[in-house]
Amino acid sequence: MPRLNRPTASQRARDQLLRNRANRENPEYAEMERVENSESQRRRRENAVARSVEQGVDRASRRSRRLNPHTRAVEQVSDSARRREIRSNPVLRAGEQAADTRRRFIRRRNTDERATEQVVNTADHRLRRLDPVFRAGEQEADAERRRETRSNPVLRADERAADTRRRAIRRQVREVRATEQVSNTADHRLRRLDPVLRASQQAADTRRRALRRQIRQVRTTEQVRNTADHSERRLDPDFRAGEQAADTRRRALRRQIRQVRTIEQVRNTADHSERRLDPDFRAGEQAADTRRRALRRQIRQVRTTEQVRNTADHSERRLDPDFRAGEQAADTRRRSLRRLDATYRAGEQEANTLQRAQARSTQDRLWQRAQDRDRRATARSIRDRRAVEQARNTLARRSARIAARQATIDAIRNISQRVSQYRSLSGNRDAENLRNANRSQEIRLDLSQGNRTPRNIPIGLDAHIAKFNRLVKLGPDQICFCCKGLWFPKQMRKLSRVYLEEHCEFREEIYQNASQLAFTGESFSFCGTCHSNIKAGRKPKGAISNGLDFPEIHHSLRGLTPLEERLISPRLPFMIIKSIGHERQSAIKGAVVNVPIPVSNIVTSLPRAFHEAEVVQLHLKRRMEYGHDFMAETIRP
């Protein structure tokens, strides 16, 4: 009889597991097995050692089972369902929460345990905040909680004080202060991307600086500080280059105004002419121009443009017979010197022979011209090439206009210089004065004989400049006896006392104004507007008697400081003042707001009860919560 192989331990365990599974499918056997297991478990747990061993075995068994993902997922689902069923009962849920609270409280007594829990909670909170919906809900809840807290003035004040102390303590650390400054700068730059916010902030800064600069000492200090700061910053090449670029853009914008460009050109021309009188400066300028032109000519387009401009300029100058004769003589001498070289002479003869042969071939020349026309037409059919050609032609025309304008300026300058040199000789100056005297006598003679036809007498640049200086020598110092405005002498009109007595109904007011100005003559001066109204029998709207006269300042109000003037002013004006024009004159932008101020309340609120003090330190703020003063000064109560 053959010998049967005995099963191994693993086979026996597998067979036993299969038998147990088959038996558990029978309800009676399963119930009997559960009862037996419960009884045996109860007996084993009576022994503490057996129970601890059993707990270790259970933990090891659960740990081994949880290594299987499927088993772990089934266990998690079962645990979740069991916890949801338990928490559906309010009493059990409250008990579970109380037990969890006590357990966490006991664990948190340990410093290491509490630190570990904080790290875990922080990591968990950061992970949950990656969800935008959770983060938005958390931010909304925090904002609502802060709004409720800040609705209480006491809590809000305490919160601000605590924040101020906390920031002050943190800012004592240099690294924290630097980090906060960088963060605030970035936040401020981000907010300034909004044009409306940037415009309002700029307007507020402008008003604040304008008010502060009204104080002479503050303005002087600011100018000194700005000058030193600017000099220090200009030591940085990058800053200096950026500043130069900004200045260039600003000058380019200003030069788009024709009047500003003309004035700048005249001023630069005069300044440059004066500096070129120095031989060293002129030599250095010529060397710099030579280097600059050499660098620019390395660019093919610039070199082509310059060649076109030079050709046009040379063609224009060759229209002068003297210039053409001098150029031909110079070329003849230069060619004669070069022709002394036999090699050069032979090459020139060969080139001339070829040039004559090409010129004699009329048919080839016509064919070449046709080819050139076709090639240019083909090139111009391409949009980009046509745009390049148009730009090149525009640049050439602009260069030609600049050259023509410079030639005109040079011609005017040469004429002025020749006139100045001519007049520098006493004999020529006396002869010119004699001619002018004879011409003036002839003109007076013609006018005396009734011949009123004006002659076209040319007036030089010096005469125009002298006339301009004579006109601007006197300012608007003439006073109108009606509106008391200041006008230039040529704007004034005269009316006699007799005319006023016969035609003016408000002559007494004019006489009163004249007496205030200590005038005792018989002919009264008026501006053009008042003169035309008086002639028409109307009273001018700008007359002083219409309530437009300034009241006399009382002696007790003279010598007040700006802050004292604001304290007793019945209304405070608010306006936006900006600089306009290239001379930066001041102008008002927008509306002017007058805010009425109860002077009596301000005066009664001043601390006049201090008998020992003769002055009071007063600080004006736009709002009480602001930290900085709008104006601070010592006043006399």
Rough shape? flat
Global structural class? mainly alpha
pLDDT average, as an integer? 81
Strand order of the largest sheet: 1-2
Q: Quick one: biggest sheet?
A: 2 strands, antiparallel
* Unreliable spans: 449-458, 607-613
Kindly provide the radius of gyration, computed on alpha-carbon positions and rounded to a whole number of angstroms.
51 Å
Descriptive keywords:
single chain; 637 residues; mainly alpha; two-stranded antiparallel ribbon; 26 helices; 8 strands; 7% strand; flat
What does this entry look like structurally?
Among the domains are: 473-546, no CATH class; 560-635, no CATH class. The chain is built from 26 helices and eight strands. Helix 15 packs across helix 19 (383-424). Mean pLDDT is 81; it is low at 449-458 and 607-613. Strand 5 (571-580) and strand 6 form a beta hairpin. The chain is mainly alpha-helical. The protein is 70% helix and 7% strand. It is flat.
Short description:
It contains 26 helices and 8 strands. The protein has a two-stranded antiparallel ribbon with strand order 1-2. Strands 3-4 form a two-stranded antiparallel sheet.
